[in-house]
């Protein structure tokens, strides 16, 4: 399980018997609190240690594991990052649950693991990178994973977890690497032999969110066709297949889709094959889109808004709400707003835990907390806005209360 931990205090070094050691460490901590960037061992054109790394060397040398845990619970995200880095080096076994507890964190900071490139990273992704490589900030050092099987089991768990969608991209990329390196085998027997493997429906849901390949396609097709497997596993596979328009998938869903649609309780015309075809049409339009061309964007948003009230289009439509040229195309803005309202009413259709499109609920929930939500409220008016909010929250509650008991 992945759970976050609370923090609400400023850490200090007070567990040492030596006054000199306490003073040195607290002095380093004071300097650490003044930083706004996490910099690694070799940064900039000269490849010299960043200030964060110089302080890390002092704190790692003289601190204890208990000190690092306290740092990882500090009110400052930079101080927390120091605690995580030190724990990953000093006490890897104890570091794993601590790092996992930070995965849900979205608080961001600037960082540069090495070289001249610095970019913003969330605390959750930083923790994920340390789990996969405790030497993440040690440029040129041999990578050192803290996890068994290269971390692929954790990545499967992350990719199946809708609430951690901001880590889905890196998790999917790592799963692709694990498959190429032979660290993970897409075989039911292999997963059954892993002590810490997620439930099979979670594994299949996660694989369904990895960019399609011949390996993932064979695995998902086999799972969807296997009548001996629990329905939730088969339906997760079918849902994942809607992201792959390969002829073999189209043929399979054309032949077996009706049975799977009935298991999913989909309405006629809104089953897995229809979702695949709509998604493929959307993807083709997106691939040819010139994102700096207002007419292209207008045409794309019109296509999505008029044709698809499908959950997979959630992010497209939400982006349309804040489109900079919206004011010059008021008629399209209203069309997008109405499409979002209709889509919100369909979110309950993807509230099943096995559904790879259930992430749309989290997209909408995040949108409700964003500044752009004010624009949609203006477009819809108070009555329709309240209905929109009610639809989104009802879908979230339904998913939260869904008991997955494969039949």
Describe what you observe in this structure:
It is a single chain. This protein has 407 residues and is an all-alpha fold. The model is unreliable at 4-9 (pLDDT under 50). It has helices spanning 19-33, 51-62, 65-71, 77-90, 92-102, 123-132, 152-160, 168-181, 188-192, 200-208, 214-225, 231-241, 247-264, 272-287, 294-307, 314-321, 330-346, 359-368, 373-380, 382-401, and strands at residues 37-39, 108-112, 119-122. Among the domains are: 19-146, no CATH class; 289-407, no CATH class. The protein is built from 20 helices and 3 strands. A hairpin with a 6-residue loop joins strand 2 and strand 3.
List keywords for this structure.
407 residues, mainly alpha, three-stranded mixed β-sheet, 20 helices, 3 strands, 3% strand
**Classification by helices and strands:** mainly alpha
Order of H and E elements: HEHHHHEEHHHHHHHHHHHHHHH
- How much of the residues is beta strand, in percent? under 5%
Report the count of strand segments: 3
Please, what is the average pLDDT? Answer: 90
Largest sheet: 3 strands, mixed
Shape: globular
Radius of gyration: 24 Å
Strand order of the largest sheet: 1-2-3
Residues in helix, %: 55-70%
Uncertain regions spanning at least 5 consecutive residues: 4-9
Distance between the termini: 24 Å
> How many helix segments?
20
